[in-house]
Amino acid sequence: LTALLAALVLAQVMLVSYLLLLTAAALVARSRARPGSNGRRRFALLVPAHNEEAVIARLLTSLNQLDYPRECLDVCVVADNCEDGTAFIARSMGARVYERFDTAEQAKGFALRWLIGQLEESGRIYDAFVIVDADSVLAPNFLRSMDARLEGGARAVQAHYSVLNPQHSAVAGLRSAALAALLAAGPLAAQ
Fold first, then answer.
1. Diameter over CA atoms, the chain
2. How far does CA 15 lie from the centroid of its chain?
3. pLDDT digits over 9-33, tens only?
């Protein structure tokens, strides 16, 4: 019984020590965070889009309603191998549109790599890139939240991602349930 009690006390001491170490590490990391941007961090919102004319206007409407200084953000749509009006709609709504036609490398990753290369070649400088799916809708405070997380020392930030219309179909409902299960499993499972 004494050995069991000693093991429990030792386990508690180790747990408290671990928590104190995490607290100290968090305080040190916070003190090393770069000086405040006060909403002046420059963001490039990167939108990979392949034949998204049905949804791109909804996304761009939400991006145009962001509560963030407009001069500190660029909306960059890569119309990737599009055969529809995606590029036209995006241009008409004020986005920077980069049209890409490459039948050998067709995928979101290739399109984003190409787009970042185009931005670098043009000499545009950003503090952070935000990748947004064309069928998304962002809350007005989205960039302020991203800015605050980066201000706190984060090097990368993952936004909460959910299904917009889970009642639309069985597939949408299943996708919504799967995302909810990942979220309920904890932050490490969702990454």
1. 76
2. 33
3. 887 877 766 666 666 666 665 544 4
